[in-house]
Amino acid sequence: MEGSAVLGFLFCLVTGIQAAGTAQQGTGLVGDGSLTLSLLQVEAAQTTPPFYLGFATAAPQIEGANATDGRGPSIWDTYEAIPGNIDNGDTSAVADDFYHLYLNDIAAMRLLGVKRFRMSIAWPRIFPSGDGQVNQQGLDFYARVLEALLVAGIEPHVTLYHWDLPQALQDRFGGWNSDQIVPIFAQYAATVFQALGDYTTHWTTVNEPWTFCFLGYGQGSGAPGINDKVQAWNCVHNVLQAHAAAVKQFRALVPGGKISINLNCDWAQPLTGAPSDADAAQRKMEFMLGAFADPIFKGDFPASVKQRISFLPQITPQLAADLNGSVDYFALNHYTSTFVANQQGAMGLQGACDYTETQVDVNGKLIGDQAESDWLKVTPWGFRLMLNWVNNRYQPNEIVVTENGMSMKGESAMPMPQALQDTQRVNFCRDYVAAATDAVNLDKVPMTGYFAWSLLDNFEWGNGYSKRFGLVHVDFKTQQRYYKASAKFLVNLFNCTVLDPTYTYPSD
Ligand code: GBH
């Protein structure tokens, strides 16, 4: 990174410390109360988790600056512009303005004691039209961010693709529906590895292909807004090929690095004690997680999927060989659980699956407490079962949970001081971390890391800014940030060094 950027960063740190100093002298510091709360809860939790802590983000949800320094349009830019697609007509155009405020946010993480940061690279910043001419300004931006993280003593974990496909590739050949994406993704990956591979050893290729294949291509409730199950399963197959091709580049360009693919899965709890419901729940896991993890770890799609999806593309022996060994650790995103019941003939998001899902049991009782997001119920017990399922089926060397978190019920409507006392989120973090701790200590699951989603309140896709997942509150009108109790709770729980626990973000 250039000298001026380093100086800028140091200046920023100094400004931050000064701001904290002022705050300590008693100028209406936000967050004193939350620290007290979190310390009490740390005592209750009593044990330091046997895995590391990080905070996670994604480029399209935080950066804003969508037309700055040569970034090209993405399929989400297009999708957001269609009325009705995003709650309140929100867009990602500004988001958290991380593109301009990253030094403040990195300084704040350092002062809070966060040692790992998960972020993604925006493909349309690197290749504005998907391939062809590289945009050096895009690479320079990420070099500055990564350099600043290292200066701050924070290890970056970098994802190549978090759903922001260059629109040009959707227009040219239908994006992830076509295998033309495979060499183009590999070229993008190679460009990033070459330019930025020295900054960190922790990488993933693609975030949550289940979500963008089945919601984006299969249902149309995300970009690119297509409603076609054939395209969705083509997407699965093309993601697997693109992942394998990118990892081939990685082995050559980032020797000693570790790479994976972020797969998301809800825990499927059988609705009743009937064996057919147990089978159905297992099938749901195979459809959602097995559709990606089985080809990688076992060389083929699950039999339950092959039997039901008539138009399923094939995993050739060559692809199976390329996928074999293509992940160095299992990267799991996990939030919630659902009840699953057997039902012959049932169609789901993924097509013919012979099961149905509900959020209530046979007596109408919710599976867990409601979060702000409709789909998210608090089910820490499901997290432990989920980790065991992954461990038993795939026996990975290592599991890193690359996302876990919640939107707190009622938070968006709360006045800010109240929103900072996010007790439901503190309890969520406490209970999910405790469940994972049991999975490691009692069940011997090799989980090594836990990333809380998310550092900041951000652009929550179809929900716009109406759902807040941040550990840090963002006032979107002023771009001011304020720690929530949950941020302090987590860093204390993990015994991170809190350089200045009373630190609040500096004002611009
Ligand atoms: C993650 O997805 C994403 O990686 C992240 O970008 C996101 O901000 C975070 O979760 C919080 O949502 O509305 O009924 O159609 C988590 C998996 C899959 C959960 C899609 C929400 C939509 C359910 N997501 N699902 S519904």
TrEMBL record:
InterPro entries: GH (IPR017853), Glyco_hydro_1 (IPR001360), Glyco_hydro_1_AS (IPR018120). Belongs to the glycosyl hydrolase 1 family. This is beta-glucosidase. Its EC number is 3.2.1.21. It comes from Coccomyxa subellipsoidea. PANTHER family: GLYCOSYL HYDROLASE (PTHR10353), LP05116P (PTHR10353:SF36). Residues 1-19 form the signal peptide. The lineage of its organism: Eukaryota, Viridiplantae, Chlorophyta, core chlorophytes, Trebouxiophyceae. The active site is at E403. It comes from the Eukaryota. The keyword Hydrolase applies. Keywords: Glycosidase, Hydrolase, Signal. Gene3D superfamilies: Glycosidases.
